[in-house]
Amino acid sequence: MIAHNPNNGILRSDYVRQKYYREKFNVVAPVQVYLGINKYGDKAFCHYIPIKETLRSLFQNECVVQQYQNPIKCEDSVLKDIVDGSVCHTNNFIKDNSNCLKIILFQDAFEIVNPLGSAKKKHKLLGVYFTLANFYPHNRSSVAQTQLVLLGKEADCRHFGDDKVFGRLISDLKDLEANGIQVANDIGVKGLVVCIAGDNLGSHYIGGFVESFCAEYMCRYCLATRCEVSAKPFTGQSLERNRENYSAAVEFLDSNPTENSHEGIKRDSVFNELTYFHVTSGLPPCVAHDLLEGLLSYDLALCVRYFVRMLFFSHDILNGRIKLFPFCGSDAANKPAEVPPNGDRIGGQAVQNWTLLRYFGLIIGDKIPNSDDAVWQFVLLMQQMTALICAPSLSYAQVAYMRVLIEEYLESRTTLFGEVPLRPKHHFLSHYPSLTLKFGPLIRLWTMRFESKHSYFKHVCVLPKTTKMSLVCWPNDISFIKHISLLVTSSVRKLSFDLQHPFMQICIVRKCRILSRTSVSHLKILLYVTVFV
Ligand SMILES: [Zn+2]
């Protein structure tokens, strides 16, 4: 309250508050980008937070400068991070500018309302964030340092095209490659995009690939057809996608405008305009989506069903043991979910499934009468393979061993459960050894941490059912709140906020369903922060 004292409080007026927050928090104001008139006749916008300004702002922090000036030294024959992979080692830009900024972008679409409700897709947003590979990996996993770059309605982004939506970002990235920026202490640095992380659907959208995984060419890494993949999921590297065959497909589409796609490509990606980035070598997989929430969930469920069918144990016994198992530390926070007796998945979230697989032997292993049982051996193989794929550090020999295990896994899966067709993700798994050599340990690029940023925004967006409130947000989230506010304008009776304010105050008299009641405690925390800042 002292801060708001009208006589001498440091937050006593709009002007003083604005000045204080700009000085103390290095606020970067978002830029509204006009996209055009959408199909409903309304003006459509997205919001871009200038990436060069954000980088300058980041370098005001001494920790950032310290990490930038003291990078972790690479070790021969050990992969610890993306900078150890061939994507960085073979990049001519990085060879010439060893101290450049290595930008990792992330894009994903997310719902801010009930995904099963009537407003599904209506308010779905496309969020783009970035972090720097120059940060130490353990710091990169912090949600706070993930920076918002762009936010827009997904439907508008698709309707108006990548050129309009990403135009400002691409322009700034080109300038960063060519001219660089001046950061703290007048250090001049250049920068480039080393990869764009995301789930499969998002990566295919960004890369201009077909977004159906039932298509003839459904892999963004190789040119294997669906029939070839079904017959032999572990394909060789001879069909790998590269700049040449990608450009040839784009040229074919240009000369045949009636064709919707060619060899799995629908259009040229706007990110290929960058000199030192190409989507054929810059879209890493997400271990959490492909393996932990995908294959592991389906294939472990097959194994459990087999064990139950063989009367080794029942679902009730397994679930009872999961419930009573003394998980400790982070494992306790990610305790496995109950395995449902019906359904084709074990049902947990990514890390819950991972925990279940790691402890599966301790939880229920004593019920397996014969340790040579082929399905039990398959579970142990899955454990070994997952441990290698999710390892934070790998030698080249271990990557070679990972390749052997994945090949064995896919063969065993086909032999043991041949009646259940393989999924596209089984094929994506076959690329993991070569992708690990390109990007370093894939766990460093999984999308879980970026998606945590979504969840924070979702919480901010979901407001309680009070008649009138004043919501104050942290400066980092101003751009988001601004955008959300514009999105919901049509759904609220009155909306007023001061966009000039870093601690923007939004007064909302609500009437719409988009603002539900789940986040009362969160709002209280925000208000608490405001009062005692
Ligand atoms: Zn492939």
Topology:
Blueprint: H1 14-25, E1 31-37, E2 43-48, H2 51-58, H3 62-69, E3 78-79, H4 86-89, H5 92-96, E4 101-110, E5 125-132, H6 137-140, E6 147-153, H7 154-160, H8 162-178, E7 181-183, E8 187-189, E9 191-197, H9 200-207, H10 226-231, H11 243-255, H12 287-309, H13 315-324, H14 329-333, H15 350-364, H16 374-389, E10 394-395, H17 396-416, H18 424-430, H19 432-439, H20 448-461, E11 469-472, H21 478-487, E12 494-497, E13 505-509, H22 520-532
Parallel strand pairs: 4-9
Antiparallel strand pairs: 1-2, 2-6, 3-10, 4-5, 5-6, 7-8, 11-13, 12-13
The chain binds zinc ion.
Residues 219, 221-222, 224, 427, 431 line the site of zinc ion.
Gap from first CA to last CA: 9 Å
**Residues in helix, %:** 40-55%
**Structural class assignment:** alpha+beta
Mean pLDDT comes to 82
- Total of helices: 22
Apparent shape: globular
